[in-house]
User: Fold this.
Amino acid sequence: MPAALLSIGTELTRGELVNTNASWIADRLTAFGLEVEVIEAIPDDRAVIVDTLRRLSTRHRVVIVTGGLGPTTDDLTSACAAEAAGVPLERHEPSLEAIRRRFASFGREMGPSNAKQADFPRGCEILPNPIGTAPGFKLQLGGAMLFFTPGVPVEMHRMFEEQIVPHIAPLATNDAAQVHLKTFGAGESKIGEMLEGLEGEFPGVTLGYRAHFPEIEVKVFARGKHRSEAQALADAAARAVRGRLGDLVYGEGREETFAASMSRVLRKGKLTLSIAESCTGGLVGSMITALPGSSEFLLFDGVVYSNAAKVQVLGVDEEILRAHGAVSAECAQAMVEGVKRLTGSDLAVAITGIAGPTGGSDHKPVGLVYFAVGGPHETIVKERQLSGDRQRVQTFAAWYALKLVLDMARDLVETSAPPPVSIAP
Amino acid sequence: MPAALLSIGTELTRGELVNTNASWIADRLTAFGLEVEVIEAIPDDRAVIVDTLRRLSTRHRVVIVTGGLGPTTDDLTSACAAEAAGVPLERHEPSLEAIRRRFASFGREMGPSNAKQADFPRGCEILPNPIGTAPGFKLQLGGAMLFFTPGVPVEMHRMFEEQIVPHIAPLATNDAAQVHLKTFGAGESKIGEMLEGLEGEFPGVTLGYRAHFPEIEVKVFARGKHRSEAQALADAAARAVRGRLGDLVYGEGREETFAASMSRVLRKGKLTLSIAESCTGGLVGSMITALPGSSEFLLFDGVVYSNAAKVQVLGVDEEILRAHGAVSAECAQAMVEGVKRLTGSDLAVAITGIAGPTGGSDHKPVGLVYFAVGGPHETIVKERQLSGDRQRVQTFAAWYALKLVLDMARDLVETSAPPPVSIAP
Assistant:
């Protein structure tokens, strides 16, 4: 049941954009047991688009097409789909009305160019877009089902799950299952070494790795005689992976995030948090506040970028800055104590370091970062020498700070739990 | 002179890996004026590979193939290239010797599986790999030049520059040029309408749009008789685009960012900045501090997520919170005044709103955000009703806050400039 993916857009064939849509869809189809036999990207060129749609529809059962549904003159997908199918374009009044309403909801009037987004090949099935102006559509061409969605990832993801999955789920072989384990704290080659030989212990299982700095996702993919056998196999292998990787695994599931896993522990322990960050410049706070409901536990994040702010806002002793500098274990400790005093939070974390590319010295090189995490019973200070460019230093430092909070919160939640009650049989 | 790119590997068609090789090569070929007409990725499947190589070689002048040159059984590229060309594989002794030496240099012995990396289609030209075990090769197939390299990005990049560029440089048309204009403040359809008809005024120019929420990039692509004519045409059309879009254009160049354009104005005016953000949770600070050297002007960013932090850190009057709530024009104004008082910065900006998905009411719906920007002469407060999910509300609000700072900083820098000196002729 081979599937094909087609992404339309000159920004792809000119290398201006990395095609993350294709890998996202391929991953989802693979999870359904549908094999992707080709991924193509082509420019906004009418002849190329028509030709490619015809060729793919003769060779594949499912073709998923993204991009080229926008309002501008280089958006040609609907017209080309109609030409490939040998049918005219037809205006779909309910879609036009939906687009008009969407604009009205922003207090704006629909422009004339948006009207073409309501033109579809005759006989297609329209796939509504709940969060954008461009609807998609489903078209039968020869023996192939073609699905068209916008290229905007957030719209495509939503439409894939809501509009396309119901059509392809019945085609799924359902003999495959996948478990996603998210890890932080070791590189891909180290993780690979730790898991060496594990596939041999679980016939039918293959391990895949996806590096999205600084996390590594381990994908445990299993095939079985039917879905439940595959799922049981994937689950067993995932337990073995967790056994080998220990604390490096922070969560499970493709949508899991590091901040979410930390926030669950804080909520469970009813613990509040405050942050003082310097070289990470708001990254720790924005990772946490990307989560809905983070206001329940996050009281304050002070991005104390200047020395003056460290003194004025957090009450860091000027003598510490003079004697040890802002990038020092002493300053990290004073920052964490200061922010805890200011807000009265249960936990606090502080980061101060040199993100680079300038600002380093022989004594304190770029990438040197101090962390302090404070709780009800203790304050822990850590020094790390990080490598890579500014963005990597900032990103790793922000994750590492959250990891320190997570570890301390786990200890508090576990040790504060009441002792298990034994029930007489 | 259309080129094609082919990436071979089941890790791509299963979505385990994003195809960054393709965008890298496409960008390099575009710079040479070679148009990429298709990018394909296919699995490690012999029939599919042979078929695809034959099809691409009949349609394209240059085909660049990455992946499948490794030592394992699923590395099939050389054998498939030989089959597509109708020639046998032949062992190349100097390559075998080079692979053996490479292993010896790590103190290891070459394994038997690596020997197949010295097997090439008869008649090809071998492309040495200076930093890996797998050499590449160049093969003429019909009218097409096919280049094969390993899929490891660092090896591919080096081999592309050293081994492939000398072959394709003579084919380069060098008749194209591109200008990238970055905009914020209007959607893609609005921008498209504002630029309608502009292509007609500049024959040889095509406009492309790339939406990366909340910015829209306008790409002005021009072809001319030679490079300098194309560049002059692209520049002239870009000036016309700027004329139509006005202040919506914040900068030029593919690497330009909104925070960088704002920071240049602040540095030029030697203006310092402090921030008080609530619903954006550190996003404004992290956008700015992603820039090297931002410590020169950013003094402090207070993420005052709780009401207590607004009072304790910024000195917001509790009466304001009681009477108007934290999401109010009054609170935004008190926040901006508080953070300016705390740090003594020249400029300050404050954001308070409801990012959602919960926390809204009839009176104050999700997406309602208040902004205040304060400078030496005035404080301006704005109310905006934003739409979309939490991430979109936060992202748009952070950009809008930076836009307010940018506009106020521009006014200060321009009005504080000394009057022009007239020189007597």
Remarks:
- The first strand of chain A starts at residue 3 and ends at 8.
- The mean pLDDT of chain A is 92.
- The first helix of chain A runs from residue 10 to 13.
- Residues 225 and 281 of chain A are 51 Å apart (CA to CA).
